[in-house]
Known about the structure:
The protein is of the alpha/beta class.
Amino acid sequence: MLSFLRTLLRERRSTSPFPGMVPPFPPRFRGRPAITRLTDGTRALPVVDLGACLFSPEETIRADGAELAFTPAIDMSARARPSLVTDTGRVAFGDALGERMRALLGRSLRLRSVVAGSCAGCEGELTALSNAVFDIARFGVQFVASPRHADGIVITGVVNRNMVGALERTYDAVPDPRLVIAVGACPASGGPFHGSPEIAGIPDAIPVDLWIPGCPPHPLTIMDGILRLLGRLGTGARAAADRAPGAGPST
Length: 251
Ligand code: SF4
C-alpha cells in the first residue's frame, strides 16, 4: 500500500496531456514522414503512399533528388484513401463529420473492433487507447462487445477472404448512421502482406470514413484521427501537434 502511494505521488498524473500537447517521443520513434527536395531541379518529387508505408528504417531514403525521413509528428489520418498519397509527407485530412453526425456521435461514440486478418499489432495499439495513459474514454469514445451497441466499426487487418462475410455481417448489425474506421497499413494496402491471394480487402459496400496509416499506428495517431473526425480537434490542438520537436507543419 505504501509503495502504491509512493508511486502515485511520484507519477502524479499518468494520462497523456494530448491534445493540449504531444508528449516527447524517444529518438527511435517514426511518425509522419517528410519528403525534402535535395536539389532545386524541376523534377517532380517522389510520392509516398502512407497507406502502404510500414514505417520501417529501410524506408528512410535518399533518392531521385529527394530525402524521406520520419518526423515525430503523429497527425497523418485522412478521410479519403487517395489523400494518403503525398509528395511532402503531409496529409490533407479533409472535413470532419457533418453537423448532424457530430451532434449524434461527437461526444459519445461506441466502436466495435473487427479483426479481419491482422498480425495483432494494431489491436495492441487499439487496446492501449483505453488504458490510463491514453484514456480515450475521457473523450466519450469506448469500445463495445456487440455491434448492436455500436455507432461504428474499426477494421484492422487485410480483410482476408475468410473474414469478408464476418465483416459484412458485423457492419450490417450496426444501426444507422454508422462510421467505419480503417486502422493500419493492412486494410489500406495489404501492408506487409501486400500481394497475397488471400487478401479480399474492404468490400465496396462498406464505405470507410477514416483511414489511419501506420504499421501499427501509435495510439496518439489513432486518437488524433478519431478526434479530428468528430470535429473535436481545433486549430489549437493542431498547433500542439506541430510543436512536437522536429515535426513539420501539418495541413
Ligand atoms: S498494419 Fe502492421 S501492425 Fe497493423 S495488423 Fe497490419 S501488419 Fe500488423
